[in-house]
Amino acid sequence: MKIAVIGAGLMGSGITQQCAQAGFSTVNIDAFAAAQEKAKATLAALFERKVAKGRLTTEEADAILSRISYSTDYAAAGEADIVIEAVPEKIDLKKAVFKQLDAVCKAEALLLSNTSGLSISEIGSVTKRPQQVMGTHFFYPAPVMKLVELIRGLATSDEVYTQAKAFMHSLGKTTVDAPEYPGFIVNRILVPMQNEAAYMVMEGCSPEDVDTAMKLGTNMPMGPCELTDFVGIDVMLATMTGLYEGFHDSKYRPCPLLERMVKAGRLGRKSGQGFYTYK
User: Of 147, 178, 209, which closes a domain?
Assistant: First the structure.
């Protein structure tokens, strides 16, 4: 079985790694060669560390990396049995990607979207085969996190759902069936909690106190402010905005502090400054 992963960002490169580790020949496709070079270098360094720590032999690491190829041409997905799109969470971008995939992929290929909350029905509507399209929401980091949410669009066939579920299990994932509503299951519950934590900081609580309270009071491994910094404040704000616009419910209104932080370039760990400062 051949796999194509669209996007060489954190999620795309992680899903590519996961597929290769499971024994599948995988091509990672991204229009930007620089993104691929960065992903390739990061993955090589990761496996070097795994070998140095004795978690993998050199032969095992080389075998996994040999199953990964890279391309900037969508035509490279033409022979793939399963295509997993993992581009940024923008509906117009995802629809543009699926239009290109529809033009180059073989008729029986599964077209899967790693969206965290967008409409699968809308994404599939731009193709001539919406029955082949469904959502498979991985969590970051993809090779570590066990969960994948499965989301069917209105047109997704039973056969495609069954095949996608079996493939996720072959990757070692546990799957849950999520409704096709903004946020699905995890983000619909988790992100409003992070948003409420931002409100508490805006009202005068320190991020340290909010995180300490949640870690010691609920046994969370990471506090909500730490988690928001980890995933990216811009990502969290976009997800919360999607919930607000999708449900038209005031309980999902994004915290104004998040908007101010994003405008100031304080995006969390990736920018060096969020609720906390990172060196």
Answer: 178
| Residue 86 and residue 163 share a domain | yes
Query: 150-178 b/e with 16+ CB inside 10 Å = b?
Result: bbbbebbbeebbebbbebbeebebebeeb
279, pLDDT greater than 90: no
Nearest CA to 110 out of 122, 121, 100, 102 is that of 102
Query: Which CATH number covers residue 22?
Result: 3.40.50.720
pTM here is 0.91
Q: What is the pLDDT of residue 89?
A: 87
Residue 187 designated active-site: yes
Is 169 among the catalytic positions? Answer: no
Which of 85, 187, 195, 226 is the catalytic position?
A: 187
- Say yes or no: 152 and 78 in one domain: yes
pLDDT tens digit sequence for 221-268: 999 999 999 989 998 998 999 899 999 999 999 999 999 999 999 999
Catalytic residue among 13, 114, 116, 119: 116
Q: Which of 85, 149, 180, 226 is catalytic?
A: 149
Same domain, 37 and 173: yes
